[in-house]
Request: fold
Amino acid sequence: MSARTAAPAARRPRTTVPAARRSRSGAARRLTYLTLTAVAFFSALPLYYSVVVASRDNAALADVPPPLLPGGNLFANIARVFDTVPFALAMLNSVLVSGSIAIAVMFLSTLAGFAFAKLRFRGRNVLLVLTVATMMVPAQLGIIPLYMLMVKLEWTGTMYALIAPALINAFGVFFMTQYLSRALPTELLEAGRVDGCTTWGLFWHVVLPAARPAAAVLGMLTFMSAWNDYFWPLVVLTPEDPTVQVALSTLASGYVNDYVLGLAGTTLGTLPLVAVFALLGKQIIGGIMQGAVKG
Amino acid sequence: MATRAPDRLAAVPPDGPVRSRHRLRRHLVHQLDVKGSPYAYVAPFFLLFSAFGLFPLAYTAWVSLHEWTLLSDEHTFVGLDNFRALLADDYFWNATFNTLSIGVLSTAPQLLLAIWLAHLLNRPLRAQTFFRVTLLLPNVTSVVAVVVIFSQLFGRDFGVINWMLGWFGVDGVAWNEGVATSHVAISVMIMWRWTGYNALIFLAAMQAVPRELYEAATLDGASGATQLRKITIPMIRPTIIFVVITSTIGAMQVLAEPLLFGTYSISGGPDRQYQTLSLLIYENFTKLDFGYASAISWMMFVFIVLVAGVNYLLTRRAKGGLT
Reply:
């Protein structure tokens, strides 16, 4: 993509587009844009609709046709969310949990990815295959013994129960292995060795700086999925000390007919993530494109 | 690197027993560093996976062979009784049917749509980044948000979807009452959330396909659809297999959507019309019947392996038909 944007417009290789393709392209191209615009529209629509409902009152929900523009009650409804559930605490907990998980996953995945991508050791291939294979083990399967383990450790109701099992995952290791094996020149490491670097020195001075773009993407993806994690926090936390998702599920379950309250909370819990995504979406997409080439 | 180290040793010959002992120690430390640190670096993953992934898996099997509740400290060994009860349990088969039905309804159209979208995005387009970013937007939205919003859209009396169906003369549908309608509604939520994500994975794979193949095909007069069928799909087969398997695993574990769609009903609606296997596990978990819940978990694992295996074979077979 960068190669194309870098090329001056005048040098656009017109001749490589065959005539047959060009003659077809008019109608097909318009259809492509139409489809993609429709997809973009439907991707954003539910979020927009939640803002619309969150800014009105429950009576407006019975309107036919439904309201299409935001009303004026957004801040009143948000205030009600804070009155109903400990939302500020939930936000704080979510930031803490998602942040520490993201940092740990970035660091530990880069460490393991470095070993798999660039170091030679007995059993490397077997261990790498094992790592990928663990992605096939469904996480939910172990919920019951994991819960019993947390009871034993007396971690139920605390954030440790969320953080500890999520400190590293196979996807992260695989992702960093893929990235480092392509993006980190082996000569750089050899040069470091000649200069007398230990393996740890290489990791710290050469690998970590080189891994930064991919690690940032991995961190973002991890942060988002930790933020959105639903089932395990629901099982292991209490409504008094929740994460955002647990607080939202309280709103969505306890106040069945109060949709406005539910959607106000939902909007509030989702918007920070959407804002971050709007800012960094381009980098995240670029990272997925680089890291996921080989399935 | 390996050739360089002996060079240096030869270039500076040891001149005395003290220096050589020092050198030997340094050599050993270096050897330990080179041989040992790779294991140290991959160890955190395997240690954490053993503690929080593998151990629970094995322990679930052990618990499933017991009459095991949190209410009593006695855990009687009952052998395969839990599994026997399970196979005779109508709720279990109902949940299995619902899981498979929602799985097929959500996964099959989703993957076809994702491949098609990726194909559309794989051409030179204006505003590419914008379209790609919006594709991932639903995946950023939390599942609670998705279900609350969609439940509202699928409402019987005042929902937007029924309102739009009204234009075509269709009467209001009570989406959460019927088996088929509730499965469709839940599948739509799953599709909405995951189609774009999978499309991006497909797109990433498609960008690695050599351009020359398309250029040659275009010269031969092959249409876009033919190129998709004859070039793109065979070339990205490993990714298709990967996505099919991960989607299968995801579909077999669906929990949040049906749970929240029934406004937090762990039975999946009054008649269990959309109770999935995960939801059934959760129901028994909340009843503190851990032995039975563990047995369902293991049956679910068996199903996942079976369904993923069948899908793997089918996707591989599809390759044979195309090339």
Q: What stands out?
A: Chain B touches chain A through 104 residues (CB under 8 Å).
